[in-house]
Amino acid sequence: MKEICADLENIFIVTKYLKEIALNANKVFLLRGDLASGKTSLVRTYSESIYPNEMVTSPTFSVMHQYGDIYHYDLYNRTLKDLLALGLLEWLENEGTHFVEWGDETLEVLLRENGYDVCVIELYKRENDRIYRIFNE
After folding, report:
1. pLDDT (average), residues 4-29
2. Which CATH superfamily groups domain 2-136?
3. For residue 24, is pLDDT > 80?
4. What are the residue ranges spanned by the domains of the chain?
5. Residue 30 CB-half CA count within 13 A
6. Contact in structure between 69 and 96 (CB atoms under 8 Å)
């Protein structure tokens, strides 16, 4: 586990580390944290560092947004059964880096059992910054 503390101005430190983890691999990052903990901000910073002309927004209503080979999912208030019916596992087969907001333990187990390369990121909100706990096993 790696822990990084950063405010929004220094979030690039986190995204730089994530790029090292995702190098040459299809990677699924499961993002866990309270509302407004910075999940979308993390994906935005990561994506815009590679695709600076992309406007990154939360895919709350559409479930998934794609930015080149970066896939951004928002699973808030959706059941695993519903997501599987929508084709979540098929989407995750696309080559690239996948960020899944609200990826719970049940999804983590399912993905690992099916051979996906999973990294869990827990985000904790503090007054002026965030704590990112990165579990890359």
Report:
1. 94
2. P-loop containing nucleotide triphosphate hydrolases (3.40.50.300)
3. no
4. 2-136
5. 20
6. yes
